[in-house]
Amino acid sequence: MRLRDTQPALSVLSTLLSLTPTPASAFYLPGAAPTNYKFGDKVPLQVNALTPADIEGTAQVHSVYAYDYYHPAFHFCAPKDGPKWISESLGSILFGDRIQTSPFVLKMGVNETCKPVCKRQKYEPDHAVFVNQRIRQGYDINWLIDGLPAGQIMKDLQTDTLYESIGFPLGSGVDGRPILNNHYDILVEFHQASKDAFRVVGIEVKPSSRGTNKYISEDKAECGEEATPQYLENNAPTEVTFTYGVYWRSSPTSFATRWDKYLHVYDPRIHWFSLINSAVIVVFLVGMVSTILIRTLRKDFARYNRLDIAMEDLSGTGVAEDGVQEDSGWKLVHGDVFRPPKHALLLSVLVGNGAQLFMMAGFTIAFALLGFLSPSSRGFLGTVMIILYTLFGFVGGYVSARVYKFFGGDAWKQNFAYTPVALPGIVFAVFFLLNLFVWARRASGAVPFTTMLLLVIMWFVISVPLSVVGSWLGFKARVADPPTRTNQIPRQIPPSGGYMRPIPSMLLAGVLPFGAIFVELYFIMKSIWFSKVYYMFGFLFICFGLMIITSAAITVLMIYFLLCAENYHWQWRAFGTAGASAVYVFIYAMIYWVKDLSFTSWTSGVLYLGYSMLISFLFFVLTGTIGFFAAWVFILKIYGSIKVD
Ligand SMILES: *[C@@H]1O[C@H](CO)[C@@H](O)[C@H](O)[C@H]1NC(C)=O
């Protein structure tokens, strides 16, 4: 609390404003420029929030909260003049980074075996209970040394490769009595770039618990044995001395490749397998849709044209009415298919917002693919997403207005007003409510109030005006007349049964877009809830493409069946058909909860549920929009190529 909360937001502003690179670092992305140290120079060690990690052996996460490093109950040593906030980007803050300075002194190339971090720390029983609870939940400490996250070297048994896993445990003894790690051996690898330029290229922290640590003076301590671990008593105050050692090792790793160890592909075979799996689904589906449609449509066109000729012949003899009765299939609804749907305003607002999301997702993935969003530029991904979303408010407004005009709507003021407010409003409201929980827990995952304020300002000052301009242009733009005229009186819709009923048909169709993405979803979930680095943007890009194709293809097929059943309410059906894949995303999130997460507090569950619902809803709007546009184009095409008198 105090000043701390306001600090990050101020630095956010300055970071946002200074996103344009200065000439000196023009060739580096933010955060990617190397820092050269001379021998003996101080290398900064910064501390980030403590995050829940998967407990070894169980692969389960027990909490979703992150805790501020200087949360009073932890009693971690702070710098003498108090910790200072490090400036961070907006994305970095939203994704949970809370970086501050620390009292650790690391001098380039100078080994230290045992130094005290600060004077003895006294844990009162209530704080001891709190810390023991966090140890049982498997919390990890996160440090940054020269911008590189500290971690532990692990071995992937499947591929037999070494990789660095970010973070190191606060304590251990998960099953028995918790012990606190109060000694850290910090191994830093450096690379000598030139005579007087040393760069940090690797970090490993080996924490241990030493109950016999002794504080002697400001920079002298006696480090105890690991044989007698440090317990925190639940019924009497415990005194703990934190110590550390620093070991520098020369390494051939160059600065440019220092992130490679972190980017560990867990099992590339699973990835390729899933990708091929999805690709097969897509090829099969697109093949099926195109053969069915091309064959039957060709037959339909031929039949309709024959009927036309027959009718022209018959019209001379006055028996045309019987000829019309012969007609069947989708042509019959030509006088109704362009009838505006119910709740046209809501649908146009959703489609507009979906288009905005689509542009944001597409551009973010493309940027990432081109290597603009390397993990070294911390939080850059999140920042780019937010900026793109804000700017694409323009697209949202334009699309929403165009669609609404096509529907022949007249509540223009509402359309202009709801489009920029609806979806961001829902997202923001949910986000705000969930944040209240985190605030109530006094955990640090809560987004500071000032950052929230900044988001609202960006939304109202940039996104809303852009959206209104877009809406106005969309409103002014000429909308081509639909290829067939709409009849005065709506046609009766014959009852349809079985799989053509709305819910079964949507659920049936929704499986396919979900099938295209579900393995990638696993990795995304892992990176969100296990705080792992996500970087497989190549896979994500292909999955995104496959998802678009499957959503479009399955919607076109279902809408064709719908029209053949003489049902012309295609607009919402198309949106729901592709959007139904969101139901599966939600179910997937729930299965993931049961399998990989086991929360020890109900508020963690509420947070998880809330975020899962939010993500599923966004996915619904995104895929629904893809389905709607695919169906729209399809219908314009087929009704444009038949003759109607
Ligand atoms: C510092 O420690 C590392 C790791 O134990 C060792 O390889 C290196 O030689 C030491 N450096 C000095 C100057 O003693």
Automatic annotation (TrEMBL):
- UniProt cross-references to InterPro entries, sorted A to Z: EMP70
TM ranges: 272-294, 344-373, 379-404, 416-440, 452-475, 506-525, 537-563, 575-594, 614-636
Any single Gene Ontology cellular-component annotation: endosome
Keywords attached to this Swiss-Prot or TrEMBL record, sorted alphabetically, are: Membrane, Signal, Transmembrane, Transmembrane helix
Q: Where in the cell is it found?
A: Membrane
Q: Which residues form the signal peptide?
A: 1-26
| Example GO biological process | vacuolar transport
- Membrane topology, from the record: Multi-pass membrane protein
User: Has the keyword Endoplasmic reticulum been applied to this entry?
Assistant: no
The family annotation for this protein states: Belongs to the nonaspanin (TM9SF) (TC 9.A.2) family.
The protein in question is named Transmembrane 9 superfamily member
Source species of the chain: Rhizodiscina lignyota
